[in-house]
Design goal:
Number of domains: 2
Radius of gyration: 22 Å
Number of strands: 21
CATH superfamily of the largest domain: FAD/NAD(P)-binding domain
CATH topology of the largest domain: FAD/NAD(P)-binding domain
Mean pLDDT: 95
Distance between the termini: 34 Å
CATH class of the largest domain: Alpha Beta
Length: 420
């Protein structure tokens, strides 16, 4: 096995594969290595639909060997650390691997330990999560008979920040179809103060919430889960919490615990587990104080090492962590690396924070939130070709985009280095 590469990539997820494939479409002679231990590559964007029985889980995965681009070496190993000043990555079994340029894209990891009792609740199957086992989410949804159906997320950054509410809308629609609405309280408890940061999308989602009769609880941060009693404890994180009285909702069985804690019983609980960068990233000299990779938000170049770039979920970027964001980041990183190789300076390509959140609001309904660092709504002009002129409103054509078109684009274009 080679011990040196022109371009070394950590991670065989969307960012790593797309970067390698795109580089090789530009220059087939490049010596590229991809460090990735996993056997399978997943299209996780479809897991929301799997959790609502609208997509086949088996169609969300492919063997890693089948998505590694021809011309790149697959180093089936774990990265464990860096000697950044020496341009070396440490691995678990393959020793030291040196590079001319490094792309860091390991994604992030689930860390249930950050919420007391969450791991126990997951082990017992008391809570479900599309982030870890969307098939279990569907089993939970299918077997639900009524009561409090609670949907929440942590205070940490997470993959696709809209995903915890997508399953809430699908569940509410499912309960409507199965005659459970009158027996059910659908609760959407989020740690943020608004349902979505882009104003036009927020307005649409509040209409959806009202239509389903969902109880929206802003400033609710989950801190503890009692799997045996089926009680979740939230901390009220409103900046005004000390200036007002927290009103508990008797219809949900809420009770106050201390000055700012609310206990809520549940019959179904869906949660996005807390998420963090991998340990070897947090312990490196590539990160900011919070442990996320410290890069220039426009060039994606490491602030400390000019030959290192960060891409995808691990990067400290003030935008949503989605595959759509990576799709726009890849050409910037590729362009900058190739320009550096030829001219010893960065090119002119910059990333302006584009991300996209396909917000499924029910079966056969979707809103498409596209935005930048400024939280400005930036819809793709190509949507007009689909006869979608207001993607901030619910549309069945957007559902078709999510279920049929995007998976095809992902496997057959994006992972093959084609810009879409």
């Amino acid at each position: 096995m080679q011990k040196h590469y022109q371009i070394l990539i950590i991670g065989g997820g969307s960012g790593g594969i797309m970067t390698a494939a795109n580089l090789l479409t530009k220059d087939k002679s490049l010596k590229i290595g991809i460090i990735e231990p996993a056997e399978f590559h997943y299209y996780q964007a479809a897991w929301t639909l799997v959790g609502a029985n609208s997509f086949d889980f088996e169609k969300t995965k492919k063997k890693m060997a089948d998505v590694i681009p021809p011309g790149a070496d697959w180093i089936k190993d774990k990265a464990t650390g860096f000697k950044s000043a020496d341009q070396i990555v440490l691995t678990e079994n393959s020793g030291e691997i040196s590079y001319d340029y490094l792309v860091v894209s390991p994604g992030l990891i689930m860390d249930p330990s950050l919420i007391e009792g969450l791991q126990d609740a997951m082990d017992k199957g008391v809570v479900c999560s599309n982030y870890t086992d969307p098939k279990h989410t569907w089993e939970t949804l299918k077997n639900f008979k009524g009561g409090n159906a609670v949907f929440t997320q942590p205070t940490t950054p997470i993959k696709c920040g809209g995903a915890p509410q997508k399953i809430a809308y699908l569940a509410a629609d499912y309960f409507k179809k199965t005659g459970l609405t009158s027996k059910t309280n659908v609760v959407l408890a989020l740690p943020g103060s608004v349902i979505f940061g882009v104003p036009v999308i927020k307005n649409t989602l509040m209409e959806v919430v009202n239509r389903y009769g969902i109880k929206f609880k802003p400033n609710y941060a989950p801190v503890k889960i009692d799997a045996d009693k089926k009680i979740i404890t939230f901390k009220n994180v409103s900046p005004e919490e000390n200036k007002c009285v927290i009103n508990t909702d008797a219809s949900l069985g809420e009770t106050l615990s201390g000055e700012s804690f609310i206990e809520m019983p549940f019959d179904m609980l869906h949660i996005a587990p807390p998420q963090t960068p991998p340990k070897f990233i947090k312990e490196s000299d590539l990160v900011n104080e919070a442990g996320w990779m410290d890069v220039d938000i426009n060039t994606l170049q490491s602030k400390k090492y000019p030959r290192i770039f960060g891409i995808g979920d691990v990067a400290a970027l003030p935008t949503a962590k989605t595959g759509a964001a990576i799709r726009k980041q890849v050409p910037v990183v590729v362009g900058n690396i190739l320009h550096l190789m030829k001219h010893d300076k960065l090119g002119s390509k910059i990333y302006e924070g584009y991300s996209s959140c396909p917000l499924v609001t029910g079966y056969r309904k979707m809103v498409l939130a596209e935005f930048n660092y400024k939280n400005e709504f930036t819809p793709d002009p190509k949507l007009k070709q689909m006869l979608v002129f207001n993607s901030d409103k619910e549309h069945w054509r957007l559902w078709m985009l999510k279920k049929h078109i995007l998976p095809n684009l992902y496997w057959n274009k994006m992972l093959k280095g084609k810009e879409v």
